[in-house]
Amino acid sequence: MKLQMRARLSGMMFLEYFIWGAWYVTLGTWLAGPLHFTGQQIGLAAGATSVGAILAPFFVGLVVDRFFATQKVLALLHVLGAALLFVASSQSSFTVFYSLILLYCFCFMPTLALTNSLAFRQMQDPKEEFGAIRVLGSGGWIVAGLLIGKLGLEATAMPMRLAALSSLVMGLYCLTLPSTPPLGSRTERVSVSSIFPHEAVALLKERSMLIFVIASFFICIPLQFYYAFTNLFLNQVGVQNAAGKMTGGQMSELFCMVLIPWFFRRLGVKYMLVAGMGAWVVRYLFFAYGNPTDGMWMLWGGILLHGICYDFFFVTGQIYIDQKADAGSRAAAQGLITFITYGLGMFVGSWLSGFVVDHYTLQEAQGAVTYQWKSIWLFSAIVSALVMLFFLFTFSEKQKRATLSSADEVELNSALPQ
């Protein structure tokens, strides 16, 4: 790939994840502060991304694969998203705000797959080329967090407006990207089976795969506690520049990504997945008992464990699916597990996390709202531990311990962290 093309695709990835990192991380802090939204409302707002993830496979399969060029669809979705984010940033009614953010997620979540698809279409050897380009996405998320934390914007509407401006820039930028016309036939009949083929669904008939999918669904429920409420938690307990410190999670993802092949060869699928789920338990215990003075090391530990939490479970899981599925159904199988985890699992998690946070709400004298964070994080730790134990004692992979193949290397590169 020519250097010019590499730079153009890297810029696309940087903007894509800068947008997401700019508005999503600090959303709960803004909604709980100036807007005084409840825990359930915050959870639902953060969970709007999961609704977008549920619908994204259908949108991509119906529209982009058959009718329109990828770069044009990306441009339209980001321009529409910019308008929706900007209008949402000025709302004080939850109903109106949630409606707008839900519409925005319908626009944004499909773009995650579309940017990957566009990049792959321009590559001769994705195994060698994609990783170095996708890593700029993590860089965009990190830069957004550092910028917002440094400027002290976490409890304001400015992160959402910054994301709106970035989305507009991204929309215009997409029009400069290489032409990527649809590959599918316009006359081909569209159905659910064309998006989630029978071969992918049939994998669930195997006991080990079914247990893996069940565990993945349930582990995504406590996962939403982290995404929706960590920034609010850190700000309420007095951590300075919480958004900037939280970028340590993305930095640890990059580091752990390098370690995955080494651990994969020594631990195998089962214990890599157990390690990932166990890291969620330890993280929530750190949050439950940490504090910004002598217990700051525990808060840092909870943040930095994100690399193990994400990479050891989700990336290893993607490799496992790649090994189990036939070559012709691997993409569909990955889409199915994304639908179940980031879609259904995190949607349930967004509702439950809000309910639990509301249950442990404390109303202070001057109308300020705080939360019994220790109880909230212990609840998350218990749920994570139950899922881990269920998986540990029920999952059995009888095949010979896997080693990383060239296909696995492609999966590792394509799954670089968010």
Q: Can you walk through the features of this model?
A:
The protein contains 17 helices and two strands. Residues 414-418 have low confidence and may be disordered. It folds into two domains: 1-181, MFS general substrate transporter like domains (Growth Hormone, Chain: A, Up-down Bundle); 196-418, Growth Hormone, Chain: A (Up-down Bundle), CATH 1.20.1250. It has a two-stranded antiparallel ribbon. Helix 7 packs parallel to helix 17, helix 11 (207-236) packs across helix 15 and helix 14 crosses helix 17 (406-414). The protein has helices spanning 3-24, 27-32, 39-46, 48-64, 70-88, 94-121, 126-151, 158-174, 192-195, 198-202, 207-236, 242-289, 296-304, 306-324, 330-359, 373-394, 406-414; strands at residues 361-363, 369-371. The longest helix is centred in the middle third of the chain and has 48 residues, at 242-289. With 418 residues, the chain is mostly helical.
